[in-house]
Amino acid sequence: MSASPPIVEMRGVVKRFGDLVALDGADLVVQEREIHALIGENGAGKSTLMNVLYGLYRPDAGTIRLRGQEVRLRSPRDAIASGIGMIHQHFMLIPPLTVAENVVLGDERSGPMLGERRLAARVRELEDRFHISVDPETKVEDLPLGLQQRVEILKVLYRGSELLIFDEPTAVLTPQEVDELFVIVRQLRDEGKTVIFITHKLREVFAVTDRITVLRDGRNAGNLLTKATNASEIARLMVGRDLKPPAARTPVQSSGTALEIRGLQAKSDRGAEALKGIDLTVNAGEILGIAGVSGNGQSELAECILGLHEPTAGTILIGGADIAHDDPKRTRERGVAYVPEDRRAEGLVLAFTVADNFILGKQDHAPFSHRGVLDSDVISANGDRLAKEFDVRPPNARAIVGNLSGGNQQKVVLGRELSEQPKLIVVNQPTRGLDIGSTEYVWERLLEQRARGCAVLLVSSELDEIRALSDRIAVMFEGRLVATLPAAEATEERLGLLMAGHTEGAPA
Amino acid sequence: MTWEMLVGASVLAATLRLATPIALAALGGTMSERSGVVNIALEGSMLVGCFFGVVVADRSHNIWLALAAALLAGLLLAALHAYASITLRADQIVSGMALNILALGLTTYLDYEMYGTTGTPSDLVAVPDLHLTFLNGIPYVGTAIGDQNWIVWVGLLLVAALQVFLFRTVLGLRWRAVGEHPRAAETVGVNVRRMRYAAVLASGALAALGGAYLSLGVAHSFTDGMTGGRGFIGLAAMIFGRWTPVGALGASLIFGYGNALSTSLQGATVGGVRLPVQLLGTLPYILTILAVAGFVGRSRAPAADGLPYETEGHA
Ligand SMILES: Nc1ncnc2c1ncn2[C@@H]1O[C@H](COP(=O)(O)OP(=O)(O)OP(=O)(O)O)[C@@H](O)[C@H]1O
Ligand SMILES: [Mg+2]
């Protein structure tokens, strides 16, 4: 029916990084005025394909046509000139600069002098037009992630892009922010713009997109109309197999309290009151989910337990001992494992091999070292064993962790943390940025620990995750636990209200 | 000890004189590091500036040519650093150090070849002082700033100009963006490599102007290794001044003042005790250590400072 050529037509795109083939003849066809989902597992090549379209990467083979015209995009400058804008998976903002400076950078449209006030006014105008609000004169480093993303969107709108690429925009957003983003995305389409939307969350695919392209191992695995497909078909195309139904949950094998926290208070790194008196217990063989919009004290709570953050008051009891002021090493020796929120910054040494990452924190005692000298045979045997056991791909313990996909990096963290039969596991956002296959894998491992009798404290802002795993759910809001519910009573609606601070009608 | 020894007009005049080469090196460091390249070859750029300025002054008897040669020499050395650190993505400290050694060896060798043991000629053309005769009658001010070298004034002008450039112009915004987050700058169409080349070249020329000041403005001669670490102290002043031109000038003035004091307090006594002048002479270096160790408040380097940038690298 549409006689006009597609706005984007990429054919046979190949991109290699050294030996690694990231794109192996990928195709992508996007029609004008549609919201097009680009999905696939971690490492499938989604970001690489978009970076090629944005002129950041030069393809080794393949053609790109924009509205039927073959183009060669040598740099982002060319892409921008062709009306392409991209919101990158890792934000491309310059923290010490203001919002306005970030928006106009590279296309300032003024004489040689900047004129801060003029810039701010121009950005405000743009904000009014698209109903996006963020103060143009604040520094980006002072903005929460949700607002930072609006700055990214403003950058693209400012350049008048006709085609907007969103690379996993929702990974760091709260549910409310996701809804707000959807409103913006739909509005953009209604104004005649075209959107490519990358996400791992199928519910988002169904919520906003019109058409779907599935990538697998750098190649096309499917092309679907959103209206005419369903979640399991998409999952099968992405993963190449059927997803297992969530494991049946065994009843809690409660055998006493594993963690008891009383009156815990702490300040955030910026000195604000982050925890205002937390009381909770986690039993052995139980998963306690901490729901909440991120930034309400969850990270401080997790870090206090591990000894990474100094509480100002309260006790943290493990096996009868108060560990509130212990250092992480001593806490870990009591059988506490930790999966931190930011695996790349806190969970792994990216420049090290898989095998070395598996022994971090265990390097100073047998069997991995003797009298201060590392035993490389034991370390590499241990690496091979865990890489296989935890399904790290590629199963090569000598690979550098920084080169693995996000899901496989998380498997390395889990392998290290779970291999020593911990008594308590503290996990913070364990599946952020992971594809559905990896998410399923992480969930399974956590349920396995629970079945073993381990206590799990699960911090997550993903309601689906909280509800799929937890036996009890505590909701955190502004440094307090505003409610604790049995999982059966925690409907999404109720949790959503509690997370937003509405405590009326909720049991304390 | 008298007030005269501490804040006399001649002490202030000396402060300004001694601060100028440090400030020019600090300006160079600031411009380079704001774009994300650490250039410790500033010391070398300064030294070749000293030397080739003198050589061309000797041969041509034209001060403009001499100055041009000094700047060009500093710029060429910086170009080597730019090529190594931007194009080849070499370690910036190693490259800078190697170039410093090269500069010292080259100038020492050529100095010996050309001027042997007699030293550079005594009738060199020089960069003149600027005699502000209208200040003559005014006490204090006349002595403090009435007879400073032209390059002192040029340096002060450059501080103001570069401060405005970095923080008030479009190009300055891009310059800083490249030093903070080059990938982000590239995604909005800024040419990271070109920006960084410009920055490193500019830093070499600025340091070389400091060198020309030493040899053509003050000493009217060249002696081996005559920069005496001023390039490095300039880098300390850059940190002290929080990577801003005005801050760099302030820090350089403090260092210059420390130097000036160690001369003016020669033989001074406090309550009958002789001040150990040698100890005073270490003041600038102690300040340097404090500055580098970060005791002067939290001063934050540009986020991408010293990191090589790969166009298709992992973000
Ligand atoms: N600059 C690079 N250098 C080397 N390898 C790279 C680079 N960029 C991507 N890769 C590799 O190419 C493959 C595809 O990566 P890409 O980032 O495109 O995946 P993705 O589909 O976006 O995954 P995710 O869902 O985790 O974001 C991965 O194996 C990745 O490690
Ligand atoms: Mg990606």
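^ adenosine-5'-triphosphate complex. The CA atoms of residues 114 and 120 of chain B lie 9 Å apart. Residues A 17, 20, 22, 40, 42-48, 89, 403, 405-406, 435; B 312-314 surround adenosine-5'-triphosphate (ligand 1) (CB under 6 Å).
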